[in-house]
Amino acid sequence: MTVGFIGTGNMATAIVRGMIAGAFLPPDEIVVFDPNADKREELAHELGVRAAESNEALVAESDVVVLAVKPQILPLVLAPLAAQIADRRRVVVSIAAGTTLAKLESLLAVEGADGGAAPVVRVMPNVNAMIGAGMAAVCGNAAASNEDVAFVVAMFTAVGQAIELPESQFSTYTAIAGSSPAFAYLFIDSLARAAVAAGMGKDLATQIAAQTVLGSAKMVLESEKSPWDLIDMVCSPGGTTVAGLLALEDRGFLSTVAHGVAATIARDQEMTAGS
Ligand SMILES: NC(=O)C1=CN([C@@H]2O[C@H](COP(=O)(O)OP(=O)(O)OC[C@H]3O[C@@H](n4cnc5c(N)ncnc54)[C@H](O)[C@@H]3O)[C@@H](O)[C@H]2O)C=CC1
Ligand SMILES: O=C(O)[C@@H]1CCC=N1
């Protein structure tokens, strides 16, 4: 089984690193191509995966082709590859935001080909896959078999967690899992900067804030309690926490987060409409 990655930028690098670390496939069953030779060769050298000379060479030897380029250039990338991808059954996996299965099918369609639509599996991963802590949503088109989808779920489970999700929920999912690591990084940095304002060193404050957010996320995942129950657990009557919580709500923390999520969903839907 050979998995080829078209594009070795932030996300593909995170996934490939996680796949190697999670021993999902041996390095010689992963092949990468990127026109940026430095990125391509650096990844190949670092992880022992194979670097193809072109996308065409990558497709020729891949059973699964992962599209890890920016959504805007997918038409440009796929136009010269569609016939080759269709010449034998290959599974196409796209991680492109705002790019539907229907759009991908149209970009892969080959005039007169009798094979019908190519098996396409859409994934929304996140960058935390780099350390094996990713969260991915997966959905396949009608031509994708249960085994195809299961393989992709397993691939992303090797770099964190993966769930099957109806494509109709992908915009919302992108907001709270694809993009939200940036929101979480912002929250951690905001906690740290506030500590710096109070006189603590930035590196120490960042370590403290990050570990506390990590522990809090694990508490939500592993305790039987809801986030609100956990909040109540921390809030001592008349204590420090409730003073901070009320100040956060005074500035509209909850509605601000909801506003950010809505903006992300809107942008994904804009991209979907334009794709
Ligand atoms: N960065 C993230 O956290 C996430 C990104 N994604 C999606 O992953 C995809 C890639 O995003 P990033 O990795 O962040 O972008 P990136 O810009 O870091 O990587 C894209 C790579 O594609 C390469 N490329 C450009 N033209 C190419 C071609 N013709 N053939 C092969 N490679 C080519 C570029 O050289 C670049 O290295 C996007 O569709 C994005 O929506 C999805 C979830 C999370
Ligand atoms: O910002 C983006 O468009 C990509 C998709 C989700 C995370 N990064």
UniProtKB/TrEMBL annotation:
It catalyses: L-proline + NADP(+) = (S)-1-pyrroline-5-carboxylate + NADPH + 2 H(+); L-proline + NAD(+) = (S)-1-pyrroline-5-carboxylate + NADH + 2 H(+). One of its GO terms (cellular component) is cytoplasm. NADPH binds at N55. Keywords: Amino-acid biosynthesis, Cytoplasm, NADP, Oxidoreductase, Proline biosynthesis. InterPro entries: 6-PGluconate_DH-like_C_sf (IPR008927), NAD(P)-bd_dom_sf (IPR036291), P5C_Rdtase_cat_N (IPR028939), P5CR-like_CS (IPR053790), P5CR_dimer (IPR029036), Pyrroline-COOH_reductase (IPR000304). Its EC number is 1.5.1.2. This is Pyrroline-5-carboxylate reductase. GO terms for molecular function: pyrroline-5-carboxylate reductase activity. PANTHER family: PYRROLINE-5-CARBOXYLATE REDUCTASE, PYRROLINE-5-CARBOXYLATE REDUCTASE 3. Catalyzes the reduction of 1-pyrroline-5-carboxylate (PCA) to L-proline. Its main location: cytoplasm. Pfam families: F420_oxidored (PF03807), P5CR_dimer (PF14748). One of its GO terms (biological process) is L-proline biosynthetic process. The gene is proC. HAMAP family: P5C_reductase. NADP(+) binds at I6, G7, T8, G9, N10, M11, A68, V69, K70, P71.
